[in-house]
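Methods, example record. To illustrate the input and output format used throughout this study, we show the complete record for VanZ family protein. The sequence lines were provided to the predictor; the line carrying structure tokens was produced by it.
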Amino acid sequence: MSSRKAKIIRAFGKVLFILYVGFLIYFLFLAEWYGRTEISEEYRYNLELFKEIRRFITYREQLGMFVVAANLLGNILIFVPYGFFVSMAGRRRGFFKTFFFSMFLSLAVETVQLITRVGSFDVDDILLNTVGGVLGYIVFVLCNGVRRKHNDRIRKKR
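The corresponding predicted structure is encoded as:
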């Protein structure tokens, strides 16, 4: 790959990451659809691991599958791009780096939600977001492997 093409791809990746961060901030703190515009009178939090996950699964009939999927899968899927971008941007990549970066970003988001009383602090969200970040890392590793294989084939043809 030429140096110019690599720079264009990196610039495109940076633009996508900035757009993703903007989306993340909007979705986690401002989105009306999730009631983010209302500030609660009291602090809402869950410190018991799997409590909210169990609640969503137990009451899936009453809540509806869309609400359950939006909460459980949504918390995973929203961090997949983060895990991908962190892996793409860093010179030193790795599973544990992505794991901890995803966990700490999620912890920061949950803490801001608790302090601002927009949303709630939920350890289950931290778990699900971290899983999403790790899945993003796995997607990156797979895509990077395909890219390297493709580049090797091109080099062999020359």
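Annotations derived from this record:
The mean pLDDT is 88.
The radius of gyration is 19 Å.
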